[in-house]
Amino acid sequence: MPILVNLDAILQARGMTLTGLSQSVEITLANLSILKTGKAKAIRFSTLEAICHALDCQPGDILVFDDEGDVR
């Protein structure tokens, strides 16, 4: 899939754990884990907004388009 999720790198740079983020944005740890591993099929803008607010980042810091990884 050409969309990569850089949540691990952002969390590490901010010194935050996935559990801490989960508590900050009131999203289940399971749902954040699905997003972090790239297995999510979709993400709500409200969820993305909450994550960006908690991590003080932009959506493009978390989600990256990588056309090289696309298998056609």
In short:
Helix content is 54%, strand content 8%.
Question: What's the arrangement of secondary structure elements?
Answer:
Elements: E1 3-5, H1 7-14, H2 18-25, H3 29-36, H4 45-55, H5 59-62, E2 63-65
Describe what this molecule looks like in 3D:
The chain is mainly alpha-helical. Helices cover 54% and strands 8% of the residues. It has five helices and two strands. The protein has helices at 7-14, 18-25, 29-36, 45-55, 59-62; strands at 3-5, 63-65. A two-stranded antiparallel ribbon has the order 1-2. The longest helix is centred in the last third of the chain and has 11 residues, at 45-55. It starts with a strand and ends in a 7-residue tail after the last strand.
What are its keywords?
single chain, 72 residues, mainly alpha, two-stranded antiparallel ribbon, 5 helices, 2 strands, globular
Amount of helix: 40-55%
Number of strands: 2
Show unreliable segments. Answer: none
What oligomeric state is this?
A: single chain
DSSP summary: helix tally: 5
